[in-house]
Design brief:
globular
Length: 251
């Protein structure tokens, strides 16, 4: 028994060392988001912005299901084809990624959302129910952002903190100690609060009054286009206070 215990301990320690910390896991998750593609201090570019929203394919995967719902419903006024055709489009994207051996994360997340929306609409028999998941997600993001502001830890600041390169001693840069950086990151977080608030202020009344086609069109407009525009503005804001560090690192 003692011999068995002695040999198992090094293996356990090695296993623990190999496991990434929560901080490392969260950093990896942040880097996979749209904001994670926007490195503090970098000059923004159209190519980088497209990459940040998932590239051309990611853009298509985000827009086409909603566009298909709008077109099919506007033409047929039939619930079943209007919600099932977007699901079929999502399946096509998943199959394409499988065949090309690409990451399925974005496609699976997209088709899951479309499938849940379609399921709710079919269960309730109401086309406007297709938009319930999106409304709920916007509400959750809005509340989450407001909570980070209330505790003086603006979400954009937390994200940027994980993207900043470490100091020479290995410690993480602390934007909280710099009033200018804190102010800019707080403003940027408030802008994202505005995005989700605008979506809810427009979409909820349209949902309650069952204006399906208008709701579908507004969702497309306030979806990827508004997200991309705000991502660009956030990038520019962050660059105003991190440009010097980014430029210094590039020299």
């Amino acid at each position: 028994m003692p011999d068995h215990d002695d040999t198992s301990r090094p293996e356990t320690a090695a296993s623990d060392d190999a496991m990434p910390s929560f901080s490392d896991q969260f950093r990896a998750a942040v880097q996979n988001t749209g904001l994670g593609k926007v490195a503090p201090g970098e000059a923004p570019s159209g190519h980088a912005l497209v990459a940040a929203i998932g590239g051309v394919r990611g853009l298509a995967e985000s827009v086409l299901p909603g566009l298909a719902f709008l077109v099919v419903y506007a033409i047929t006024k039939e619930l079943v084809p209007s919600v099932l055709i977007p699901v079929a489009i999502g399946v096509v994207f998943v199959v394409l990624r499988l065949l090309q051996r690409q990451s399925l994360v974005m496609s699976l997340a997209g088709i899951l959302g479309v499938a849940i929306s379609a399921g709710l609409a079919l269960i309730t028999g109401r086309a406007e129910s297709n938009f319930i998941p999106g409304i709920v997600i916007n509400a959750v993001w809005l509340v989450g952002l407001l909570v980070t502001l209330a505790i003086r830890q603006p979400l954009i600041g937390l994200i940027v903190g994980f993207l900043l390169p470490p100091n020479e001693d290995g410690s993480h840069q602390d934007w909280r100690a710099d009033p200018a950086k804190r102010r800019v990151l707080t403003v940027a977080t408030w802008l994202w609060v505005g995005l989700f608030a605008i979506r809810l202020l427009i979409e909820v009344p349209l949902y309650l009054t069952a204006q399906v086609e208008l709701l579908a069109g507004i969702k497309l407009i306030t979806g990827v286009p508004l997200y991309a525009a705000l991502l660009w503005v956030t990038w520019l804001l962050v660059r105003t206070v991190f440009k010097r560090e980014g430029d210094a690192a590039a020299v």
